[in-house]
Amino acid sequence: MPLSRPVQHDVGVIVLGPGAVRYGTALIGVACAWAAMVFAWQEQDGPGSGWVVIAVLLLGVGIGGWLTGRALRLGVVCGSDHFVVRGLVWSRRIPFSAIISMPGPDDVTTWPSIAWHRHGRRWSTPVLAFWVSQGRLAAPAQRSAMDAVRRLERHRVERS
After folding, report:
1. What is the pTM assigned to this prediction?
2. What is the model's pLDDT at position 60?
3. 111 to each of 51, 70, 124, how far by Cα in Å?
4. Phi, psi of 153, rounded to the nearest 5 degrees
């Protein structure tokens, strides 16, 4: 007899952002942690309080690690009747029935976001995972983001 049963999740598809976007954004967290470590290293023999150095080190490495982990998971989880948009700071669950508009393939270079309503209020949730800059070097990431946006729309239409 098994000690525990596997948890059943209502996840059909996980659409991650292009690797260039996720890894590039993860560098923000790495830079934050690195800056805290450099500060701690420079102040270790300085006149500053040891508690300040420890606090800056713990906060910088903690926040940097958290941001790096969130950046690597940027994307959208597609459920049977909802999306969970994973952002850099928080995740948002959006039911298909509340969606007003979805980002199109042309939105990946401007500001891809899902517009939706809840309790009579209009919300707009940015999908940072699919936000790619313009330029020749970004073309592969743009194509990947455009394909991902199309997949999201196709998933929503098939499930609605």
Report:
1. 0.80
2. 94
3. 42, 19, 11
4. -65, -40
Give the separation between CA 28 and CA 99, rounded to whole angstroms.
31
List the structure tokens of 134: 């313009």
- The two tokens of residue 52 are 């300040």
In tens, the pLDDT along 112-141 reads 999 999 999 999 999 999 998 888 888 889
Task: Provide the token pair at 130.
Answer: 């699919």
8 Å CB contact between 155 and 12: yes
The crossing angle, in degrees rounded to 10, of helices 19-43 and 50-72 is 170
Q: Is 107 helix (H, G, I), strand (E, B) or coil?
A: helix
Q: Contact 132/18 with Cβ under 8 angstroms? A: yes
What is the Cα–Cα distance from 21 to 81, expressed in whole angstroms? 27
